[in-house]
């Protein structure tokens, strides 16, 4: 086997989750998915497709109907281009992660330098390594209140003409950090100068709570870029439509790259199942019913969890403007992998260790707040409070 | 974009298929799939899963129930290992092509040499190129009767200690060529000596008509190899279970590679949809009902098509022992891409050009004989006969 593949890190989140195997009653907030089932209307569309016998190969780039629906959705959020122009830039992929892998395959040769803003979910760092790239990370910096921010001078200094690709995920998993439109324009202008591709993972675009944008969504590179910029934006049906298990996403590409991406899809997965794509097409038809309600609910989740967590003694965290994670530090707890395992065993609380997302996040914990029942979140905080109270050396308040 | 990715060949099969866009009544035999819908019992299992709300992330390696079912199926065909031992060697993938791509990612570094037996379906050649490998092809040789055979001395001479990976697809798409167990043992012994990995695409294992094996299937590397051999075998639900559009397959791996493959799956697609895997689990439960009947039908298709084709003037082809393709040459027709396009336009007959599968197959045509209705095959031959009859310089027999 290849050394680089063997050395890819095992998922530390799964290592924690394994700690919960066979344990009753663990409250699980470790994975990045809601506990809510996909809306019935989406499932019914897939069922109807299966009943109609749509079990054959499909276009590499996705069903034209679905690409058109995605283009219309994109135009609605980003009116800078018409639906037909967006259509020519859309490739349907077998999940957001698959889209990101395809994007890396399209631009990264072995030996190329790739710059990645971290902390970030581990797949983004692993993918260029699989292609043989040299990965250089630029850490966000954390302030006293626990908010993670971009060190723009450090990022721009890291991106040189030798940098083939910048990978950035904002709204960010795990920190909730979000790029402003000005920052996106600055990064893009710099990358135009260095000839660097930008791969923007914007799957949390709709999960944005700041209310300071015209479309309600997080700022997007699509609004500051030209169609022919070296920009690839990755999206997913997972988060905004409660479709994690469907494995469907899409890429927005420079139009000249779309046919090339069709070839890469052929050689990676050939296509996504038609019945899966039928579900997604209906999801987009009903996006005004599904997504705003989902985002309002996630905001309630956030607004329930964050103040309760912040009130715990020794806990540092900021209110995330986007995403679906609380990211926090507990005073006196340095080894977050061990801490996360102990919380599973001793408190029945399942969180993800910060070190899974980058060395600079060691000591932090990620809590996915996408929970159908708000009571699960308050019960989780209560379990953490009781556990902290009996730890030596922390500011326990007693039971 | 990467030069190597831009230079990947567009599908010549799609180029021919595009010729048929908007044309009524074309008989389409160009793609490698049956025109038969997935059996209802399989579709019902997926529907039940969707109704039950199984819309969440799943294990990277596949549902344990499905892996166990695949292990049992493998044990039934290849009793050399028990079901539990096979289980530890199974990874569920998002289609056969996805499994092959994952296998290449696992073993091929940029610059590595990969040897591939051709003609072969184009994805096998493209995948190592995407990883930056140097690809060396070893052509099968064709005899006077149109049968393609392995030139074993040439293959063994091509595989040296510098060869990282051998890729071989048998039963072969497009030629139907099949490796004997002796040939597999010879190849494996040689590759042990050179330290070369073997990636065997055995997705047509069950589509075998020679009747000279104990299990009825084509010879498999799994029957001549040890568990710890550097061998990866790729399988798919597409052909043996009429599930092309479901995008589900599996790999059989050395047991130590299985956890590594789980990581690669995480970084490529994360997992296959649970509802898709439920369909496949039921497919394996009913394999004795589904697969032998399917193979008998395909044999009828083959035995209908081949004699009719062979009887046409100027046509050379051999009876394929495996697979689902007739592969033939028409005297006086050298440019098979142009020939295939003309057959679409002038005869309403959709075939794949041999040059899509390797330069040595230029001048040949591939006809997928997986057809629900045998009448489509005879009508297709009749169209070819009529078309040939009016071509100058061929042995036309008149209308």
TrEMBL record, chains A, B:
GO molecular function per UniProt: transaminase activity
Domain spans labelled Aminotransferase class I/classII large: 35-384
UniProt key word Calcium: no
Enzyme Commission number(s) from the entry: 2.6.1.-
Keywords from the named record: Aminotransferase, Pyridoxal phosphate, Transferase
PANTHER family, sorted: AMINOTRANSFERASE (PTHR46383:SF2), ASPARTATE AMINOTRANSFERASE (PTHR46383)
Listed name of the protein: Aminotransferase
């Amino acid at each position: 086997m290849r050394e680089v593949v063997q050395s890819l890190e095992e998922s530390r989140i799964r290592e924690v989750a394994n700690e919960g195997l066979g344990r009753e009653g663990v409250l699980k907030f470790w994975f990045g998915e809601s506990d809510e089932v996909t809306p019935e209307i989406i499932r019914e569309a897939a069922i109807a497709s299966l009943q109609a016998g749509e079990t054959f190969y499909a276009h590499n780039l996705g069903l034209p109907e679905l690409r058109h629906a995605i283009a219309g959705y994109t135009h609605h959020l980003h009116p800078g281009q018409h639906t037909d122009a967006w259509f020519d830039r859309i490739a349907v992929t077998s999940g957001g992660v698959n889209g990101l892998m395809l994007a890396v395959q399209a631009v990264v040769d072995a030996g190329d330098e790739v710059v990645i803003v971290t902390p970030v979910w581990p797949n983004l760092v692993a993918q260029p390594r699989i292609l043989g790239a040299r990965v250089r990370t630029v850490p966000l910096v954390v302030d006293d209140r626990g908010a993670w921010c971009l060190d723009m001078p450090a990022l721009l200094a890291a991106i040189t003409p030798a940098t083939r690709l910048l990978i950035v995920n904002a709204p960010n998993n795990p920190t909730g950090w979000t790029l402003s439109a000005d920052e996106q324009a600055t990064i893009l202008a710099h990358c135009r100068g260095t000839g660097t591709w930008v791969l923007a993972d914007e799957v949390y675009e709709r999960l944005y709570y700041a209310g300071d944008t015209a479309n309600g969504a997080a700022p997007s590179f699509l609004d500051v870029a030209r169609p022919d910029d070296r920009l690839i934006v990755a999206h997913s049906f997972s988060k905004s439509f409660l479709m994690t298990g469907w494995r469907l996403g899409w890429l927005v590409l420079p139009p000249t790259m779309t046919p090339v991406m069709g070839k890469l899809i052929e050689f990676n997965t050939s296509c996504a199942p038609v019945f899966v794509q039928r579900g997604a097409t209906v999801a987009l038809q009903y996006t005004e019913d599904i997504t705003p309600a989902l985002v309002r609910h996630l905001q309630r989740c956030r607004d329930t969890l964050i103040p309760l967590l912040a009130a715990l003694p020794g806990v540092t965290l900021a209110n995330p403007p986007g995403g679906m994670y609380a990211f926090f530090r507990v005073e006196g707890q340095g080894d977050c992998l061990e801490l996360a395992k102990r919380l599973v065993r001793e408190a029945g609380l399942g969180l993800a260790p910060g070190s899974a997302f980058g060395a600079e996040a060691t000591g932090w914990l990620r809590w996915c707040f996408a929970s159908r029942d708000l009571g699960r979140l308050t019960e989780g905080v209560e379990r953490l409070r009781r556990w902290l109270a009996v730890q030596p050396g922390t500011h326990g308040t007693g039971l």
